[in-house]
Every structure is written in C-alpha cells, then in structure tokens.
Write a structure and sequence with these properties.
The complex is a heterodimer of chains A (671) and B (114). Chain A is of the alpha+beta class. Helix content of chain A is 44%, strand content 27%. The longest helix of chain A has 53 residues, at 144-196. Chain A starts with a helix and ends with a strand. In chain B, 39% of the residues are buried. Chain B is an alpha/beta fold and 114 residues long. Chain B has a domain at 13-78: STAS domain (Transcription Regulator spoIIAA, 2-Layer Sandwich), CATH 3.30.750. Chain B is globular. The chains are: A alpha+beta (671), B alpha/beta (114). Chain B: This is STAS domain-containing protein.
C-alpha cells in the first residue's frame, strides 16, 4: 500500500506529539532515554539504536538507553571523536563507512549496532551525549525528512538532558549545601557546648561523635597528652571495638603535626607507624590546640561512601581542624572552670573548717561573703549579714568601725585584740584583723575581716589569772584536756602560810594601814607563788593556801612548793628591811607543807563557785602551818621523803595534831 | 569495628526496627535489608527506634532516603522515634523529615503510622 505524503506528515506529527508527552511525563532520565529511543526507532522504522550520555569529568560515554543491542560498560571515546563530532553538533553524521576518528570500543559498538546516523546531543559547546540510529528497516535509505525528524527529536532530547543535568546539578548542590549547613551547625553546636558543657570528658566525647558523623568516618578516637606522660591517653573513642594501642606522643606523625602546626591526611601510600598501630590505612589526624599548646589529637578512620572506603581529602582535614580548634578551646575552658571550681571548693572547705570568722567586703563596703565560723561568732544567719554595709552591721561597735575604716583608708592590714563586740553582746570579746583584698594587678577590691571569738578564753583568763600564773593559764588554754574542773581525786602538795602575831599587830594599826600592809605582803608572796606555778587557792585573813599539782600536775610539784616557801622567807627578810626603814614592825610567818591525796574541782553554790581542793591532806598542811614558828618551814613525812635529797632538814619530834590519833613526823627546813 | 545490630518486630501493620550502633553505611545497609525483606512480604509501614543510635552520617541518611523512595512507590511510609537531638537535627538539615516523620514517642508513632 502506497503511503501518501500527507499520511507520512501526520505520522511524524503524531510522533512529535508523543515525544512531547514522553518528555513531560518522564521524571527520571532513564525513562526519557528509553521513551525517546523507542519513539525515534519507531518513527523512522529502524531496529537498533543507542543513546549515550557523555560524562565530561570521567571522559566516558555511558549507556542511557539501548534497543536491539545489549548495554555494555561505559566507553572511553577517542579524543578525535569528541573533537570531530563537535563539527556536527546541530546536525547529524551519516555513516557510509566508519570514519577514522571512530576507533576502539566505540567503533565496535557502532559496527555491532549497525549505526547509520549519529546525532550529536550538544548544548552550546557542551556535549551531553550522542544518539546512534541503525539502518532503516529492509535497508531503506534515510530520506531528508527522516533526517530532519531525527534532528528535531535530538534537539528535544538535548534540551531534556540539559534540563535533567541542571536539575541534577541543583539536587547535588542542594545536598552539598545541606552538608555544608550540617558542618556549620556542628561547628555552631560545639561553640554552644563551649559555654554549656563544663565536663571535659563529656565535651571530648560529644565533639568526637560529631566529627565522626559529619566526616562520614567509620570510627574515631580522641587522644589527650599530658606533660608527664609519654603515652597519649585515649580520652574518648567511637565505634572502636578493638583495644586501643599504646600510642607514644613521640610518633613521627605527631611530631610532624607539631612541627607543621597542621593535621595530616594519611592514605595507603603513606605507610606511617600510626597506620600500622591502628591497623587502618585511611586516617585523618588533627591537633587539639588551644593557646598555642597541643592538648592532644583527634584521629578519624576510613571515609565511608556508598561504594566503600575512600581517602579523606583536604576539605575533610580543614573541617576536622576547625572542629578540633573549637573543641580544644572548649576543653581548655572546661578544664579552667574545673580548676577554678576545685580551688573555690578548696578555699571554701578551708574557710568553712577554720574557727576564725572570715568576712569579705566589696569595694563599696558591703559584705559579700561570710564563712560558717563568722556566722557562729556573729550569732546571725548568713542571709542577714551578706549584702549589708559594714557600717550598718557593726554600728554598735565604734572601735571596730574605726579599725575597718582605717584599713580601708590606709590600704594596710590593721589588727586589734581583746575588742568588746557589742554587736553580739556586752560579754563578747574578739580579736580582729582587717586586710585589703587585692586582685592579681594589686588593685584593692575590698577588705577581708578575720575575727576570733576570745570570750571564753577571756573568761578563763579572768577566772584563773587571780589564782594561777600566766604560764599555767596559757598551758590550760593550749590543752583543754589538762583542765578537769569537774571533781577528781589527785595527789597534790599543799602550802600554807600564816603571819605570826598579825592580829595583835593589826589592833595597833589603822584599818587602811592593815589593808595596805597585807596587800604589800600578799603581792610579794603571791609573785613568788606564781613564779613557781603554784595555784593560789585561798586567802583567808592573813593566811595563804597554795596548791601544787592542781589543776595541772607536774613531776616536781613538791620541790616547787618547798622552793616557794624558802624564797618567801627570804623575801620577807627583804620586805622587813623596807618596813624597818619605814619604821614599821616586821612581819613574820610560819609555813606548813604537806603532800597527799585530795579531791579537786569547782566547789560551791551556783552563785559562788571556786576551784579548790579538800581532804585530810589539806587539813594536815594547815596544822603544820599552825605548828610552825615565825620564819619556820615545817613539812610532813611525805614532803620530806620526796625532797630530802635537795634540801636540808632537821627532823623534829613528832607532834600531835587535831583529828589524828598518832603523832605526826615533822621536818624543819634549814634556811 | 563495633557491630551494628537491630531487632525487627511486627506491631500490627507496622514494622518496628530497633537499632543499636552507628547509623553509617553498615548500619544503613542492615536497616534497608530488613525493610526490603519485609516489603517483599507486603509490609509498607516502618518505624525506626533510634534510641541506641546516637550518631548518623550522610551515608546512613542517603540509605534512608533510598528506603523512603522505595516505600513511596508502594504508598508506604517511614517514621522514627527516640531520636537524639543531634540525629534529629541531621535529619532536618538533610531534608529527610520532608518525606518521613519524626515522632516523640513509640505510642505516638504507632498511632501516627496507623
């Protein structure tokens, strides 16, 4: 059947219409290729055809669609083909014989597909591919209309491929931008972590995880270096099941990083010791560097792709370096914070544990901190102290205000002891020291007040200083254990003195003269008592009762008692010479000394209580004193026994004493 | 290298896959393999419990995109729950959440998928 020209035209027009539908409907390039090739071959009645896509970066032709022949591996076309085909970019090539510029695997494909017409697919100077169409059915020759139709289809295909390439390019760029955005977000997240995560280990782990993820690494580890340790310490690992090997910071690769101040990308060609140690060929290593000091390294292994492992590149190293720089600063900050916190806790624990109250004032004189001892001394809650101005807090204490003010104005340390502290109570006594607070540049940032509550000490001193020497008071205050005022049995030495004939002497004197005479006498005698650490137990009229061995016992209590007595008798001779000059009657007294068990403690009522000793030992001491004549020192057997080696005694006849059935041995000291 | 593991459970019409480990090439392939096997048996709704996968890389994401594309061909869906913030952020940035859904809990996810 004859086909008329108008039928042919209508057929071609319907083919072009179908072509439009294919290009509109297809959403994948493969669908475009297959659809267009089928349409082309059907339109011009050819049995075989191929559409190749040209990838400029790889310089290869890959099969997009084929009909009548099997798809094969991509072909690298000869350079001459690329150069020559360009000449026909808006037309076609009809192959009578295979031209010389078609060689190799391409020639083989052309021959196998019985290609008759090649249609270059060019967008401007850029080759997108080629379409090869075989001889027509039954060897019929191509008409000019056939060729024109082929060119029209090729132009539309070119446009579609170009559009697809553009879309693909946009998609690729979009993915690339997303990845870049992810990188930026990661960097941003780490910068946020700098101010939020203050645990160095947590921070290190976080940064490592992000680095592994963002760089598509298969695993990684963070190594920290310490000055004292030659081995790098793996502080965090990710996806690392194998035991981490010992890595010396002297390894060549780390030295190189240090020298060049830059990380490295290692590929299988490098063959450095680190790759062997980690049993990995693809590595990227960047230093963790802050303040020009290397803190360690981040090591990532194996850059993953969908098709296997590939080498890390410079961009990967740049990104890892940026992450490491941020991480190093963050970790340095975290470490600094940790150090400061520890130092603060250390200071607070010291301030909290000391008995001295510490108050700090800011530059305008407001209290910004007080330790536990401070609140205890102040007898106030911290919240009622902090924030107040010192002038308000200590308004009842002028002396304290002056002290603080003077330290503030003169910028010097000022101290005062035994200050009454009316802020707390009339009875409270403190020692206070005020010092300027200086910052590292030496600028004054306020004041530090140290206060010590010495009320109890003051009470003890006031109580005991009348009875014992300063040395004994200090000893008692230094060691509370020595002070047992609750009542106990103990061995002591008791010394009594009694002025002979004082009653008759005083009857001839004016009362005030009596008092001044006694005061002069007692003053000199008690000085001697304290000189030998005796405890003045009582003054009864013109009598003195002294104790050695209470409240503090010593090995030489008895010797000291005897020396005291001897020195007292020597001193009275001196005093009497004075009295003689003043035309006053001499004072003479007797002394009795005994040693034995007594009960000691605070004895008396709630209103009137004294530390004293009681018992037979005390009574016998008093009896011996009564028996002693003027200037005489009598001691008991127990005293003689202890001191006979050091003093000369005259044994006297045993005497009867009140309350004792048997006579008592008595010894007189030779003075 | 640490193993990536997963547990696959059928909860009604929904297939729940609990993952454990780095969602990278290896992890992604294991997930896709599990999904495709279930798809062959007619399952089209999938939920990933990523509680124990705290790190994901772009290869893992690209494999999830492949799964989503295949599910779209059969009108199926993919959802996730128990995502670490860093993983959720990665999914958002890489555009994954445009074609799949992040749920805040398993119960919400099961309800949202059915």
């Amino acid at each position: 059947m004859e086909i008329s020209g108008s039928d042919q035209l209508e057929y071609y027009l319907s083919s072009l219409n179908e072509l439009g539908e294919i290009l509109i409907e297809a959403d994948k390039v493969e669908q475009i290729g297959t659809g267009v090739l089928r349409l082309t071959l059907g339109t011009i009645m050819a049995s075989k055809g191929v559409i190749f896509l040209y990838k400029k970066d790889k310089e290869e032709l890959s099969f997009l669609a084929s009909q009548g022949i099997d798809k094969a591996e991509p072909i690298s076309p000869p350079k001459k083909f690329v150069e020559n085909i360009k000449k026909y970019r808006y037309g076609h090539v009809v192959l009578e014989n295979t031209p010389k510029w078609i060689t190799g695997k391409l020639k083989k494909q052309i021959v196998e597909s019985k290609t008759r017409v090649i249609l270059p697919l060019f967008h401007q100077n850029h080759m997108l591919g080629v379409m090869c169409v075989s001889k027509k059915f039954m060897g019929e020759e191509y008409s000019s209309t056939d060729v024109k139709i082929l060119e029209i289809i090729a132009h539309h295909l070119t446009k579609a491929l170009y559009n697809y390439e553009l879309i693909q390019d946009v998609e690729d760029k979009k993915t690339e931008i997303n990845l870049k955005l992810l990188e930026l977000e990661t960097l941003f997240d780490i910068s946020v972590a700098i101010s939020s995560v203050l645990d160095t280990e947590e921070l290190g782990e976080d940064v490592l995880w992000r680095a592994v993820g963002i760089l598509n690494a298969s695993k990684g580890m963070m190594l920290l270096q310490k000055e004292t340790n030659p081995i790098l310490e793996p502080s965090a690992t990710f996806n690392w099941d194998e035991k981490t090997p010992l890595l010396s910071k002297k390894l060549e690769v780390f030295k190189k990083i240090e020298e060049n101040n830059a990380g490295v990308v290692l590929t299988p060609e490098n063959k450095v010791h680190l790759q062997k140690k980690l049993n990995e060929k693809h590595l990227v290593v960047a230093p963790l560097k802050a303040k020009n000091k290397t803190q360690g390294y981040m090591v990532l292994c194996n850059k993953e792709t969908r098709h296997g492992i590939e080498a890390f590149n410079q961009l990967d190293l740049d990104l890892l370096t940026a992450l490491c720089n941020q991480a190093a600063v963050a970790m340095d900050n975290a470490k600094l914070f940790k150090d400061i916190t520890e130092a603060k806790q250390f200071n607070e624990s010291i301030l909290g544990s000391i008995a001295t109250g510490v108050i700090t004032l800011d530059p305008i004189g407001e209290i910004d901190s007080i330790n536990l001892a401070g609140t205890t001394i102040m007898k106030m809650e911290e919240e009622n102290i902090v924030g107040n101005h010192y002038m308000y807090l200590f308004e009842k204490d002028e002396e304290i205000l002056e002290l603080i003010s003077s330290a503030e104005i003169e910028n010097k340390i000022r101290s005062e002891i035994n200050i009454p502290f009316f802020t707390v109570s009339k009875e409270t006594v403190i020692n206070m020291s005020v010092a300027p607070r200086l910052d590292p540049e030496g600028n004054t940032q306020g004041l530090v007040i140290a206060l010590e509550d010495i009320t109890d000490v003051s009470k003890v001193k006031n109580t005991f200083k009348r009875y014992v020497s300063k040395q004994v008071v200090d000893e008692l205050l230094d060691d509370d254990a020595k002070l047992n005022l609750g009542g106990e049995k103990r061995e002591v030495t008791i010394l009594f003195t009694d002025i002979r004939g004082f009653t008759s002497m005083s009857e001839k004197m004016k009362p005030e003269r009596v008092v001044s005479t006694l005061n002069e006498y007692f003053s000199q005698m008690i000085d001697i008592v304290f000189k030998y650490n005796g405890t003045l137990d009582k003054i009864i009229g013109d009598e003195l009762m002294i104790v050695y061995g209470a409240p503090i016992a010593a090995e030489n209590d008895t010797e000291r008692a005897v020396i005291t007595a001897v020195e007292m008798q020597d001193q009275i001779k001196i005093l009497n010479k004075e009295r003689k000059k003043r035309k006053e009657a001499p004072i003479q007294f007797g002394v009795g000394i005994n040693r034995g068990l007594v009960v000691s403690g605070n004895i008396g009522s709630r209103d009137m209580m004294d530390y004293t000793v009681i018992g037979d030992t005390v009574n016998l001491g008093a009896r011996l004193c009564s028996a002693a004549g003027p200037g005489e020192i009598l001691v008991s057997d127990s005293v003689w026994e202890v001191t006979k080696e050091n003093f000369s005694y005259n044994p006297l006849d045993p005497i009867n004493v009140k309350g004792k059935k048997d006579k008592i041995s008595v010894y007189q000291i030779q003075t | 290298m640490a193993d990536f593991s997963l547990e696959v459970k059928d909860e009604g019409d929904v297939v729940v896959i609990e993952t454990n480990g780095y969602l990278n090439n290896v992890g992604g392939e294991k997930i896709s393999q599990a999904c495709y096997e279930k798809m062959e048996n007619g399952k089209i709704l999938f939920l990933l419990d990523l509680e124990n996968s705290k790190v994901v890389n772009s290869i893992g994401v690209s494999i999830l995109i492949e799964i989503i594309e295949k599910l779209q061909d059969v009108d199926g869906r993919l959802g996730y729950y128990n995502l670490a913030p860093i993983v959720e952020k990665t999914f958002n940035i890489m555009g994954l959440t445009k074609y799949s859904t992040v749920f805040s809990s398993k119960s919400e996810a099961l309800e949202g998928m059915s």
